[in-house]
Design goal:
about 300 residues; Farnesyl Diphosphate Synthase; about 75% helix
Length: about 300
């Protein structure tokens, strides 16, 4: 596998990250074509160039965010997670810095090559990620306000979605502010739910010096917060899919996936064991992938099968 393969397997699982990037880009492509859906007389246009570039941009951004986090969290991880790849010397911060710089360079090249002058919109999530690196100039304050810290860092996905929609070829005109806002809300709720569910641990899993939602709120209240966020994401995705023509079939599908997620989270709240803790991570990832990819799938089905170009 090699040391870089080992690092990626532990800290940046490529298959899962690729799926998340693909789901995000696909849903954004639907919202970018929203103006034409009201007429109901055209197919969803799956633009391979736009969507492919969006997948690559999202994937590379997630990688450079990982590099930023390795630098930000190095000292804390050295004290609390000495078994992590960087802390045990598998790869160095210097090597990661070079890899991160290459990723950012590729992002800029792809954005301006694929989208021309509109590629300037990619500076929105790119600039936001730099603010995250420096903790918005308020590191100590954010450390004392864990919820605001998590929300501010989850918002990067909203910035990505806005950029992808605004860069996309306006096949049927510019999307409405309402649809763009709901997509941004979906991105925030989905990403925040992943953060909460990944950091809601069984009491026996807690580590001294590591902040978790379960440590801050208790397992039951942390699980309840996860439920609220999953519901918010589901409502947002349900509305976007409805607008794309999914109607009640789509709503029923989202409701079924959400019910499964809520029952799994509730099971952890009632019995917070390490086994049920791992299921929370499954819920976070599966719910994101299903509802985001589902928006694109339901648009293609409802609008006559879609057109690939």
């Amino acid at each position: 596998m090699g040391r870089w393969g080992e690092y990626l397997a532990e800290r940046f699982p490529v298959p899962v990250t690729f799926l998340l990037a693909a789901a995000t880009a696909a849903a954004a492509s639907v919202v970018a074509q929203e103006p034409g859906f009201g007429a109901g007389n055209h197919s969803y246009v799956f633009d391979l160039s736009d969507v492919g570039a969006g997948v690559a941009l999202m994937f590379l951004l997630l990688f450079h965010l990982r590099v930023f986090d390795e630098h930000k969290d190095y000292e804390q991880d050295r004290a609390t997670r000495p078994d992590r790849p960087v802390q045990r010397g598998l790869v160095t911060l210097g090597e990661l810095k070079v890899a991160g710089a290459i990723a950012i360079g590729l992002e800029l090249a792809i954005a301006f090559t694929a989208f021309g002058a509109d590629g300037v919109w990619w500076l929105l999530p790119l600039g936001y990620s730099v603010l995250m690196l420096f903790e918005f100039g308020a590191k100590r304050w954010l450390e004392r306000h864990y919820a605001i810290y998590a929300i501010s860092h989850s918002a990067i996905t909203s910035a990505v979605c806005v950029a992808l929609v605004m860069m996309a070829n306006p096949v049927f005109g510019e999307p409405s502010a309402t649809h763009l806002a709901v997509l941004a809300l979906l991105a925030l709720a989905s990403t925040f739910s992943i953060d909460v569910l990944r950091k809601t641990w069984a009491p026996s899993s807690e580590i001294d010096g590591v902040d978790t939602w379960s440590k801050l709120l208790g397992p039951s209240f942390a699980a309840f917060l996860g439920i609220l966020l999953v519901v918010a994401a589901s409502v947002s995705a349900g509305w976007l899919g409805w607008e794309a023509g999914g109607r009640w079939g789509w709503v029923g599908f989202v409701a079924a996936v959400t019910l499964w997620a809520l029952m799994t989270i509730r099971g952890f709240a009632a019995d917070p064991t390490p086994k049920r803790e791992k299921m929370l991570q499954v819920v976070a990832g599966v719910h994101y992938l299903v509802v985001w990819i589902g928006i694109a799938v339901i648009a293609a089905i409802a609008l006559g099968g879609g057109v690939i170009r």
